[in-house]
Every structure is written in C-alpha cells, then in structure tokens.
C-alpha cells in the first residue's frame, strides 16, 4: 500500500470527524445501504487525508473498508453469497496483479505497491458482493447516490464561478483552480479534473436507468442526471465529455439489443475499413476527435502507438520504465522513469503483461455478456428492470471509453469495482423479476445454465 508520496499521517480534525461519522453509518445502516458511506468518502475526501502506519498508507476510504470487513464478519453477512465466473476471473486478475506485477521489478516496495492496488480492488469488490444481493439493492444505492452527488456537483459549480476549490482545506488538491485554454478545470476532491469529469460521466447512465423505475425514483434520477451533466461540463475535460456523449449512443442502441451480435460485426468491419483507408493507424482517430472536441488526442494516439511498437518490452511481465517512449523526451514530473500513461488498458499491460491485460479484458467481456443475457429476452414482462440493467451495461461501456483517455488512479477506482460487483451479482441473481429463458434455468456469467431455486 506504499503508493503515495507522503511519509506521515495527514488527517485534519474535520477529516477525522468525517471518518468517525462514516464508520458509525457503515455499522448502523441496513445492509443494502452499508456501501453508501464508502461511496460518500471516496468522492468527498481527498486522497491525501490518510494515516501512515509502519510505512503503509491508509486513506480514509481504506480505513472504512476495514470497518466494513469487520461488520461483514461480525454479522455473518458473507452467508448466502454465491460466486460465479466473473468472481473467478476477478480473483485470477488479483493474483496476477500481485505475483506478475511484483516480478516486473522485484522488490519489497513494489510488492507493497501491488498489495495496495489489490487491497482497494478486493476490499470494494468483496463488500459489494456481501451487501448488494439483488437488483432492488442496486436501485436503492443509485437512488441514494442521486442525492449524494448533488452537493459535490454544486461545489464544482461554485469552483467554476470563483476559481477556488473548497476541498483544498483538506489538502491534496489546489486552492486555485487550474486553467487550460481559458477554461477553468474544476476537480472538487479528486486529484485531477479528468477524474472528476469521468466520475460523473460514468455515473450518468445509472441515473438515466433509474428514471424508468417506478415509485420514488424520479426525483433522485433527475437530480443525479442533472448533477452529472453539469459537473462533467465544469471539469472542462474533453475525454469525460466524449464519454458522456457516448452514453447517449449506448441508450440509442436499446431497440437493437436483440441484434448486438450483428452490431459488433458491423463495428469490426468498420474498424477494418478504417485501418485499410487511413494513412495512420486506426487509433489516431483520437487525434481527429480532439480537433473537434479539444484535448490532447494526439498524445493518447501516440501512447497506444508506442505501446504497440514496444510490445516486446512489456508483454511478459510488464514494465516500469517508459521514459524512452515519451515524445521529445517529456516525462512525468517527479517520475523520471515514465511518460504519462493516460490509457488504462496500456497501464494494465505495463502492470502485469499480456496476462493481466487479457484477464482485465475478459472481465469486461463477461460483464457485457451478463447484461446481454438479461436484456435480450423478448418477453414483455419487467421491461423497466431490463432498461436499468441495460443502463448498467452503458455504464460499463462508458468506463471502457474512459479507459482510452485516463488511467484510474484516484478514488474513482472504487466506482469501477462497485460496478463489477454489481455485474457479478446480476450473473447469479434468482430474482423473480427476471423470468428464465428456459424452464427451471437461468444463465450465468458466460452463458451456462444453472438450476433455478424455488421462490
């Protein structure tokens, strides 16, 4: 867990009181809402609020995970949790992250660094699997999140109008808002404006899906969706804005959900045609998009180009040195061994070779298969529920788009593992709102049928 620059604890009084309240809530809230204090902490507390114990760095959300794990143990909340194919893929990814990731540059510090990544991943994923057991639980969490993100979005609008970040009182984020091309780039409690914008852009589809649910879901859906749009714009991140627009395309494909295989084939043919007729590799489309939307599309294209060109350096165990990839010798400030890796897929390969990257892609594919199995049924029942599951799939696609323009290294990584935990639950749910394709069977994560339990 030794992956931060600070060597001493840095928790202010307000941060400590905040953590205490969140711990109390994590123990007292009903099971389905027990994840909310973790989500609140990740988006309202900067990463630099931490305790350093024996050289190990525990940000507030990491401490809250410990409280959550203790709750699961004390209340026996692991009982009844089933594990499927996606869980196994995730477990293998965790193993490779530690073993192969450490072998990339064998040292105790590297081992601690890999353990820190695994702690974040396993902690969030495990708690979600224990606490969120049905689609109703997911809807309840998203409904609460609609109100949760509103103050955060409001703080970014205030930051947009004043040029000052209110979260700077906690440290870790600048007081004066960054300006690029004459635009204020608001970031709230996140380490970078791109991450703040990405957080809201990837949350947006869930609020859209919430709108289609009955009961008291309309208002939190409106509040959450409006907050997401406004905060994404306030971040002035072209990558986040493109992700937000991409979610619109995802929902537009809902009428074609029964023909997604054809859509995938058409997309593949389009990519092949572009590769044939473009003078540059197809990933230089990012450069063309940046000419319209702004941003550093050329750099993102160049990064992929360098990763492909230097595949022999990272394919087996990954790599911790990419400075020679940098255009014009430009490297990351404070990290002379590397250029800025703004692509999560490339980061996965550098962190553990093709095996880690392959498992990461397999997890994503399994997630899309889960969504496809649930939403492709043609019976007219429970259509609103299937729209919400489709929204989860759009959220997954939004993260995949974001992976092409940013590496997840901030609190936002918790949202990614939260999504994976929800998808794994959907693969094994026996809820009556999802009638089986065949009598007495339901599909699992990769298409096999498992027995249906009596309700």
Secondary structure class reads mainly alpha
Specify the oligomeric state: single chain
Q: What is the number of independent domains?
A: 1
List SSEs in N-to-C order. HHEEHHHHEEHHHHHHHHHHEE
Task: Describe the model.
- The chain has helices spanning 13-28, 36-44, 60-75, 85-103, 108-131, 135-162, 193-211, 218-235, 238-252, 260-277, 285-293, 297-309, 311-314, 344-375, 383-403, 412-428; strands at 50-53, 56-59, 178-180, 183-185, 441-443, 449-451.
- By secondary structure, the chain is mainly α.
- The chain has one domain (13-268, 337-451).
- Residues 1-5 and 431-455 have low confidence and may be disordered.
What characteristics describe this protein?
two-stranded antiparallel sheet; two-stranded antiparallel ribbon; 455 residues; disordered C terminus; 16 helices; mainly alpha; 4% strand; globular; 61% helix
Write the layout of secondary structure elements.
Blueprint: H1 13-28, H2 36-44, E1 50-53, E2 56-59, H3 60-75, H4 85-103, H5 108-131, H6 135-162, E3 178-180, E4 183-185, H7 193-211, H8 218-235, H9 238-252, H10 260-277, H11 285-293, H12 297-309, H13 311-314, H14 344-375, H15 383-403, H16 412-428, E5 441-443, E6 449-451
Antiparallel strand pairs: 1-2, 3-4, 5-6
Helix pairs in contact: 1-2, 1-3, 2-3, 2-6, 3-5, 4-5, 4-14, 5-16, 6-7, 6-8, 7-8, 7-9, 7-15, 9-15, 11-12, 14-15, 14-16
């Amino acid at each position: 867990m030794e992956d931060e620059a600070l060597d001493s604890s840095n928790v202010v009084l307000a941060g400590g009181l905040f953590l205490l309240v969140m711990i109390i809530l994590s123990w007292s809230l009903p099971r389905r809402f027990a994840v909310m204090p973790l989500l609140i902490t990740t988006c309202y507390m900067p990463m630099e609020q931490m305790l350093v114990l024996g050289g190990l760095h525990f940000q507030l959300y990491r401490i809250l995970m410990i409280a959550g794990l203790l709750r699961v143990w004390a209340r026996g909340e692991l009982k009844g949790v089933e594990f499927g194919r996606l869980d196994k893929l995730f477990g293998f990814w965790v193993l490779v992250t530690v073993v192969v990731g450490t072998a990339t540059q064998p040292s105790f510090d590297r081992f601690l660094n890999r353990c820190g990544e695994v702690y974040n991943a396993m902690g969030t994923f495990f708690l979600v699997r224990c606490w969120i057991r049905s689609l109703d639980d997911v809807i309840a969490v998203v409904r609460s999140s609609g109100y949760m993100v509103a103050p955060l979005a409001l703080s970014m609008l205030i930051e947009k109008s004043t040029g000052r970040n209110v979260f700077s009182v906690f440290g870790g984020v600048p007081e004066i808002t960054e300006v690029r091309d004459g635009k204020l780039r608001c970031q709230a409690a996140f380490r970078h404006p791109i991450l703040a914008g990405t957080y809201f852009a990837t949350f947006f589809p869930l609020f859209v899906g919430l709108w289609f649910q009955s009961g008291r879901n309309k208002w939190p859906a409106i509040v959450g969706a409006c907050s997401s749009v406004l905060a994404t714009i306030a971040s002035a991140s072209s990558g986040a804005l493109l992700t937000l627009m991409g979610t619109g395309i995802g929902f537009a494909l809902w009428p074609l959900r029964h023909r997604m295989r054809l859509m995938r084939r058409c997309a593949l043919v389009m990519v092949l045609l572009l590769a044939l007729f473009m003078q540059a590799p197809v990933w230089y489309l990012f450069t063309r998009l940046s000419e319209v939307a702004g941003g550093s599309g050329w750099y993102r294209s160049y990064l992929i180009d360098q990763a492909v060109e230097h595949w022999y350096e990272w394919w087996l165990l990954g790599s911790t040195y990419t400075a020679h990839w940098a255009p014009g010798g430009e490297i990351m400030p404070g990290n002379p061994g590397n250029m800025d890796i703004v692509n999560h897929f490339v980061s996965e390969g550098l962190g553990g070779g093709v095996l880690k990257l392959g498992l990461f892609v397999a997890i994503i594919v399994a997630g899309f298969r889960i969504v496809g199995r649930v939403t492709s049924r043609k019976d007219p029942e429970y259509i609103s529920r299937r729209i919400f599951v489709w929204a989860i799939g759009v959220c997954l696609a939004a993260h995949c788009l974001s992976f092409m323009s940013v590496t997840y290294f901030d609190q936002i990584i918790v949202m990614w593992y939260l999504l994976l935990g929800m998808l794994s639950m959907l693969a094994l749910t026996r809820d009556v709102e999802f009638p089986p394709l065949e009598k007495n069977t339901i599909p699992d994560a990769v298409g096999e049928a498992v027995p249906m339990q009596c309700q």
